User: What shape does this take?
Amino acid sequence: MAILTTKKTRQSEKTTPGGQNGHQAKRGQEIHNRLLFSRRVVVVLAGVIAGIAGLLARAHYLQVSQHNYYRTRSRKNRVKLQVIPPLRGNIFDRNGVALSENILSYDLVVNRAKSNNPDALVKQVADYMRFDEEDWARYTADKKKKNYNQDVVVRSDLSEDEIHHFVVDLHRFSGFEVVPSYKRYYPHGDLTAHVVGYINNINKKDLDKLDPREYSGTNKIGRTGIEKQYEKQLHGQAGFRQAEMSRTGKVVRVLEQIDPVPGQDLYLGLDLNLQRAIRDILEAEEYNGAGVAIDPRNGEMLAMYSNPSFDANLFVNGISHKDYSELRNSPRKNLFNRALNGNYSPASTIKPMMALAALHDYLVTPDMTIDCNGSYRIPEYENTKRFFCWKRSGHGNMNAANSVIQSCDVYYYNIGKELGIARIHAYLSQFGLGKKTGVDLPNESTGILPDKTWKQQKYGKSWFIGDTINASIGQGYMLSTPLQMAYFSAVLGARGKRFHPHFVTHYRNPLTGEREKKSWPRLTAVSQNNPHAWDIIDQAMIEVMTGKHGTARKVKVNLPFKIAGKTGTAQVFSFRNNKRIKKEDLAKELRDNSVFVTYAPADKPVIALAVILENAGGGSEIAAPIAVSMLERYFSQPRKNKTAPEPTKPVQPQSNAHGGRV
Assistant: This one.
C-alpha cells in the first residue's frame, strides 16, 4: 500500500506544472557549477604547470648554466691550501760525521677554529701533562704568533705514553691533532755549539724579514753559528698541497701537490776529532780559553772551540728561564764565543810579523844587531819612563832571528819606534789584525789594531810614542781574537800566502746526492821585499821550540817532524813603576793570559793552531805544552774521508682513524 502511494505521489509531481519548472532550474544550477569548477581547475593546472616550468628553468640555470660557478663556490668551502714545510739540510764535518740531525718526533697541536672550547680543552691537557710555567709560556708565545685557524703547538716532542693517550682519546678533544714534525738535534752537544750554532723559534722580528710563503709552515730559524749564516741554503723551499677536506677537517682527497725542496746539506772543513781533542784538553786543565785551527794551504777551518761551552739542544724548542739564567749568569760565560769574539792582547806572538815588517822596509838586515841591556828609553825622552824587557838582565846583541827565538822586547821597542805606528798598522793589517777575517760565521769581532786615527776617535786623545812602544810587543791598545791569531799563524806558515778562512767546503743536493764545491777567493799575498825574510822567520820559529835559548825549548814534542811556534804572555794588569809580583800573589783575574801560536809540520804545514788561556800565566809554561798536546792528538788519529749518510726524506702528514696526523 505504501508502494502504491509513493508512485502516485511521483506521478502527480510530474503532472504538476510548478514542480517541472523547479527541476529545470536545479539542473541549470548544477551545470553552471560544473562549468565554474572546470574553469578553476584549468586555472590551477595552468598555475601549477607554470610553477613547475619555472622551477625546471631555475634548475636548468643553476645546474647547467651556472654549474661551474656554484661548483667552484662549493669547493672553496671545502678545499684548503696547506703548506708543506721543507726538511732542513744537515751539517757534516770533513769526514762525513753528522753535526746536526733531523729526528722524527710528534707534537700535539690545536686548531682553535675547529675546537668547541679550545681554552677549556687545553686546560685539561695541561693538567694531564702537568704543565709548568715554562710550558704555559711556550704555548702562549706560539698562540700569539698564530692566526685563529692555524695550528698552535700545545706540547712538542711527545713521549710514547703521551702519543698513545691522545691518539686513543683524540675524539674527545675537538680540534686537537697529533702531528709529525722534525726536531733538530745536535748529537755532539757542547762540542760544536759555538760553530754549528742552533735553531729556535721564529719571533715577531724575524717575521718582518722573512718571506711568508717560505716560512708559513715553519716555526724555526737558524739563530747562531752555521745554522744562521747559511739559513737560506739549509732552509729549502716550502711545498704546497691543495686538498679537499671533510667537515671534520680530514683530508678526503689531494687535488694538487707541489713537493717541498729540502735544504742543502753542508760539509765543513771541521775535523771533529781535533775539535774533541781541543775540548778534552781545555776541560781537563779547567781553563777558560779557546783553541782555533786552520789549514794554511787553503784556509779551511779545522777546529774552533771556546771553553766552556753549552749544549745547543737546550735552545731548539725554547730554553727554560731557569736554564738560560744559569748560562747567562755563569761566571765562566759559557754562551760567550771566546774564539770569535774574545779580545786579548796578542803579546809576543806578533814579533815574527814585526820582524818581517822591519826586514821588508829595510829598517834592519838579517845580521844587524840591537843591544838589549834589559830596558829601553826613548832617545828623545831620556828622563822619561823606561820600558823593560821581560828578561831584566838583558839578552845582549840581538838580530832578527834571535829576537824571535828569545822573544826580546827591547829589540822590538827599537824597531817599533823607527817603523812608527802607521807602518806597523799597514803591515800587520795584511795578516788580518784589526779587521774581520771574513770567516763564515755571524758576529765576528774585529779586534783592535790601533793607530792615531783610532785613538782620536775612541778617546779624543793624541797618539804618543809610548803607545807605539807598547804596540810593538802586542800590548797596550792592541787586541786580537783567537781566530785572528790562528789566521796570522796560518799566513806565517804559508809564507805570506793568504786564503779566506772558511768552514763550508761543499754543498750537497739531498735529492741527487751531487756535491758542489763552494768557491772562496784567494787573497793577495803579504808584501815582502827581502827574499830571505821568510826563511829567517820560519827557522826562528822552529828554534823557539828546539833552540838552546828558545822560549818553548822545555816543551816535549812527540812528533816525527819539527814544528814552528811562538809564545806570548799577555798582561791583563800592570803595576806602576814596572813593579813585579809573583803569579801566586795575584788574584786569578789579574794574572797574565797565556798565548801560543804554531804551525806543523814546519817545512810543509797542514795545520796552524792558536791557543789562548785566560789568567793562566806564561805562554811557554802553559799554552805551549797544551797546544803541542793538541797537535799530537791530531796527528795520531787517522783522517780519512768517509761517506756521509743519506739524508732522511720528509714525512708527509696523513690522516688516521682518530683525526690526528701521525
Q: What stands out?
A: The domain at 105-180 is CATH 3.30.1390 (Ribosomal Protein L30; Chain: A,). Confidence is low (pLDDT under 50) at residues 1-15, 642-662.
